[in-house]
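Working notes for the structural subgroup meeting. M.R. asked for a predicted model of this chain before we commit to crystallization trials. I am recording the input and output together here so anyone reviewing the notebook later can reproduce the run.

Input as submitted:
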Amino acid sequence: MRVISRNGFLIGMRDTGDQQHYLGLKVSEQPTDSVTFIQYNPKEKKVDPSIDEVFLAESVKIGIKKYNADKGTALAVTEIKYVPYDLPNYDVYTIMTEAILSKGL
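Returned structure, recorded in token form:
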């Protein structure tokens, strides 16, 4: 998985051949009760979204909790950028969150 930093986002891109996932995170050291979602549609596809933002947020929350527990930090996600037509494999987003934070910070 590649991780880059762009416009304040830490972005992870995962391509396993038949599946592709994109996840961008803005993090803060301040706790937050809300998360802003940004749909990133690089191919401007006109399809119904396959990603459920509630499940995506929960997956990211699990990943950041694991990261915080391992590193002794108290980071929070303030914004999530995602491709709305990616496959909704939410376990992957948990893994990606941990990897993005580990590689990007």
